[in-house]
Amino acid sequence: MSYWIINLSVTLLSFVVAGVSGIFLVPFLRRIKFGQPIKTEDGPQWHASKQGTPTMGGFMFIIASVAVSMIGYWIYRLRGGIDVTSQEVQHAFFRMLSVVVFAVLFGLIGFIDDFTKVARKHNDGLSAMQKVALQTVFSVGFLVALNKFGDRSTSIDLGFWESPSLGIFYYIIMIPVIIYLTNAVNLTDGVDGLCGSVTFAVMLVFTVCCSILKESELSLFTMALAGGCLGFLIWNLNPAKCFMGDTGSMFLGAAVTGTGLVLHKHLLLFLVALVYIIEALSVVIQVSYFKYTKKKTGEGKRIFKMTPIHHHFEMSGFSEYKIVITFTLTSIIFGVLGIITLL
Q1: CA dihedral for 20, 237, 245, 144, sign (positive or negative)
Q2: How far apart are the C-alpha atoms of 192 and 129, rounded to whole Å?
């Protein structure tokens, strides 16, 4: 059975599992009153109408992508004609498994955060310090796993230039990179269908990159997650019947970041994740400028109408569908540029 047939089968199965699971999950979340609290200062006033929409719908693509990627691997192992006794093949599987476990652990952080919000019936869950502490611990564990399973390079690959070996400093640099990117994906989840659509495009790009770089096992997860995101979008496109919650967005953040680090192509990761990076950067710029102008003039000023930047576009008259399409196309364009850097 060919590599691409297995990948397409994985995508289709994950899409079906995620889409069908919503039939049971959404009513269940409504029944137990796991609705999203909405704080209007974090988004446009009209988002108040979304108050109580079921959250934690990220379980749809989490369950689908994890289960189906494992099934896909065993099909690939049995029918793909690979030498399973090879250490490199074994390491490739464990690198893929490391990304899956890493994503699940970050999803667990998101679940605790979501559950706390629902229990308190307030939009405040875990504190920033609690989140960063857990993210740091899991990030260290992930980097240790990558080192153990074959990625011992400590250089930064920018395509046109590769740094000298940085030793321990490579890991010290990568920990804040992981935390920034995972939280950037979390910030992208603010418009119906946005984070799921962008991540669907990102995972398709990563699949092509995995094929070029001979990371066949990892591509099973990227394709499974692409299918899972597509199945979730049945329930999440505007008007959303369910939100992914931090459970889903933290899982996606770790999946995107983990995949990029396994491929060890840092310029590629930057280009593929550029939409997420800009989303988080808009918040940093807005807050920094507000604090600076308030200190200088006594009155804080803003550059954007609202951040993250997708809210700026909303406040400027863009519909949620238009934002989703624009941001997803942007991800595809920069993703293609990322693929070109590998050729």
Answers
A1: positive
A2: 28
What value does the CA radius of gyration of the chain take, rounded to a whole number of Å?
Answer: 20
State the DSSP string of 44-62.
Answer: -GGGGGGTT-B--TTHHHH
DSSP state of 38: -
CB 222, CB 212: distance < 8 Å: no
**CA 296 – CA 294 distance, rounded (Å):** 6
Name the nearest CA neighbour of 70 among 94, 91, 54. Answer: 94
Tokens of 218: 């990892």
Burial (CB count <10 Å: 0-12, 13-18, 19+), residue 317: exposed
* Tens digit of each residue's pLDDT (9 = 90 or more) over 3-54: 788 889 999 999 999 999 999 999 999 998 887 766 655 667 767 778 779 9
Distance linking the first and last C-alpha atoms of the chain = 26
Number of other residues whose CB lies within 10 A of the CB of residue 252: 35
Phi, psi of 151, rounded to the nearest 5 degrees: -95, 90
Looking up tokens 């990076």, which residue turns up? 277
Q: How many CA atoms lie within 13 A of 227 on its CB side?
A: 28
For residues 189 and 248, the answer to whether their CB atoms sit within 8 Å is yes
Contact 186, 246 (CB under 8 A): yes
Q: What are the φ/ψ torsions at residue 239 (nearest 5 degrees)? A: -80, 125
d(CA 337, CA 239): 32
Greatest pairwise CA separation for the chain in angstroms = 69
Q: How many CA atoms lie within 13 A of 25 on its CB side?
A: 27
For residues 106 and 212, give the distance between their C-alpha atoms in angstroms, rounded to a whole number: 28
Tokens describing residue 65: 């992508």
- In sequence order, what are the residues at sequence separation of 6 or more whose Cβ sits closer than 8 angstroms to the Cβ of residue 229? 18, 61, 196, 197, 199, 200, 203, 252
State the DSSP code for 250. H
| Domain range summary for the chain, segments of one domain joined by + | 3-267
Tokens of 14: 């994950």
Summarize pLDDT for 171-200 with one digit per residue, the tens: 999 999 999 999 999 999 999 999 999 999
